[in-house]
Design brief:
Layout lengths: L1 H26 L57 E7 L1 H5 L17 E9 L6 H11 L4 E6 L4 E7 L2 E2 L8 E6 L18 E7 L16
Parallel strand pairs: 1-7
Antiparallel strand pairs: 1-2, 3-4, 4-5, 6-7
């Protein structure tokens, strides 16, 4: 009977306590919001990345130049030993100065320059003389030459050069030679040459007086 009389006294506090507990637990939570749909993003494909070429650094003035080792000095090549030589020329200028003395048939053999052979260098051979050099250059240059030899005296006499003979311009005319500006007093076959000698053959109309000889020196 007690329960019937006192049940509300017991149930009411319990109900109040239960309500308070429910309010405590339910009051601290917020109602969940429905998740909003996110807009779909278009898938993006990353573009291929091409690496740029790396430029080589330009040389600057401050960079040291490469050092080149000097080439070893070469020994000078031995020069061939110069061989002895002489020069020779043949002239008939006096015939241009005295045309009236010359045989008219020989006028065609006199060059306008008065030079039959310009100064020519000749390599000397063993025991060369004025005579042997004259004979050699006349043969090499196709110049007429005529001479007479006397074996007994081992001498030669020059009779004509270039078709111009002794006595073609008078009784005192003929060929003479000089070496280094001097007219020797012996024949051309007797004059042995040395390195550097200068030979000049000249035609005289006055026994050498018109060419600086002052006498007759030809062959002996």
């Amino acid at each position: 009977m007690w329960w019937k009389r006192n049940k509300w006294k017991v149930l009411i506090p319990l109900l109040i306590a239960a309500a308070l507990c429910a309010a405590f637990f339910l009051g601290g939570k917020q109602p969940e919001q429905p998740a909003q749909a996110q807009p779909e993003q278009a898938e993006q494909t990353p573009e291929a990345i091409v690496p740029e070429p790396i430029a080589e650094p330009e040389p600057t003035a401050e960079q040291p130049e490469p050092v080149t080792e000097p080439e070893p000095a070469k020994a000078p090549e031995p020069q061939p030993e110069a061989k002895p030589s002489c020069t020779i020329s043949i002239r008939c200028d006096t015939l241009l100065q005295n045309p009236e003395l010359l045989d008219p048939e020989k006028a065609a053999f006199v060059p306008d320059s008065g030079v039959l052979l310009p100064e020519t260098k000749v390599e000397l051979q063993a025991d060369d003389t004025v005579f042997t050099v004259l004979k050699r250059v006349c043969m090499e240059n196709a110049i007429h030459m005529e001479f007479s030899e006397t074996p007994m005296y081992e001498s030669a006499y020059i009779e004509g050069i270039g078709n111009l003979y002794e006595f073609d311009a008078g009784e005192l005319s003929g060929w003479m030679y000089k070496v280094n500006g001097v007219f020797p007093n012996f024949g051309c076959s007797k004059y042995t040459l040395s390195d550097g000698d200068v030979i000049v053959w000249v035609y005289t109309c006055d026994l050498g007086a018109d060419v600086g000889g002052g006498g007759w020196q030809n062959g002996a």
